[in-house]
From TrEMBL:
NCBIfam families per the UniProt record, alphabetical: hisG
CDD domains tied to this protein: PBP2_HisGs (cd13595)
Subcellular location: Cytoplasm
PROSITE patterns from the UniProt entry: ATP_P_PHORIBOSYLTR (PS01316)
Subunit structure: Heteromultimer composed of HisG and HisZ subunits.
UniProt pathway: Amino-acid biosynthesis; L-histidine biosynthesis; L-histidine from 5-phospho-alpha-D-ribose 1-diphosphate: step 1/9
Protein's recorded name: ATP phosphoribosyltransferase
Organism: Sideroxydans lithotrophicus (strain ES-1)
Domain ATP phosphoribosyltransferase catalytic: 51-206
Record's comment describing the protein's domains: Lacks the C-terminal regulatory region which is replaced by HisZ.
EC number, UniProt record: 2.4.2.17
HAMAP family with a match to the protein in the record: HisG_Short (MF_01018)
Any Gene Ontology biological process: L-histidine biosynthetic process
Length: 212
């Protein structure tokens, strides 16, 4: 049995065409089903539905053989025990620093003042500001980061930006790009060795179906 960990929403939707290329079709839709283990058309393949940030953990411990996770999530996890053979080029966005429209980020950084930064991506933010030599106080949040500068919780946020609509709607502006983000296929290292005969053809089919 091959177990594939996916999160609901954009990752599930954008992974489906790639799975189809590997001959795997989900028999139920996670948006309408309450099941967390979804059967597929293949007796030897099942899907498990987990939080996006939990995908690397399931694969690391071998509870799933394969998974799809954003580079944002993989950087926070650290990637331990994971083989990352393929950038799937899906769920594309950018990790950015953003501030209120009326906040002068350049001068704040130049003055060397400590910057209060709210984010779900604490490790990414810490690494980014350390590499720039900017002192920061990091405030861990689990969502709705855009609110933090509006109510005085932080000076800046580190968050994902795609269309920019969420920043615009909240009178924020992006001031720095930290990294381009897309999702990767992750594979448990032991699974790859023990189940290579089944997994390798799936990896090849995924690779052939990835759009540049
Ligand atoms: N606006 C976006 N446009 C494109 N890709 C995005 C966007 N937001 C997030 N992503 C990517 O999609 C992945 C999954 O995002 P999703 O919104 O489904 O989960 P989440 O709510 O961030 O995670 P969790 O449920 O663990 O808190 C993210 O890890 C990121 O790589
Ligand atoms: O630049 P935009 O296109 O506005 O996208 C950016 C938003 O998308 C992500 O949130 P979330 O996963 O909640 O987005 P969703 O509402 O699309 O699910 C991210 O945390 C931003 O809030």
């Amino acid at each position: 049995m091959i177990t594939i960990a996916l999160s609901k929403g954009r990752i599930f939707e954008e992974t489906m065409p790639l799975l189809q290329a590997a001959g795997v079709t989900a028999l139920e839709d996670p948006e309408s089903s309450r099941k967390l283990i979804l059967p597929t058309n293949r007796d030897d393949v099942r899907l498990i539905i987990v939080r996006a940030s939990d995908v690397p953990t399931y694969v690391q411990y071998g509870a799933a053989d394969l998974g799809v996770a954003g580079k944002d999530v993989l950087n926070e996890h650290g990637g331990e025990g994971l083989y990352q053979p393929l950038d799937l080029n899906i769920a594309k966005c950018r990790m950015m620093v953003a501030v209120r429209n009326d906040f002068d980020y350049e001068s704040a950084v130049k003055q060397g003042a400590r910057l209060r930064v709210a984010t779900k991506y604490v490790k990414t933010a810490r690494e980014h500001f350390a590499s720039k030599g900017v002192h920061v106080d990091l405030i861990k949040l689990y969502g709705s980061m855009e609110l933090a500068p509006l109510v005085g919780l932080s000076d800046a946020i580190v968050d994902l930006v795609s269309s920019g609509a969420t920043l615009k709607a909240n009178n924020l502006k992006a001031v720095e790009e930290i990294a381009p983000i897309s999702s990767r296929l992750v594979v448990n290292q032991a699974s790859l060795k023990l189940k290579r005969a089944t997994i390798q053809p799936m990896l090849d089919a995924f690779a052939g179906a990835v759009k540049s």
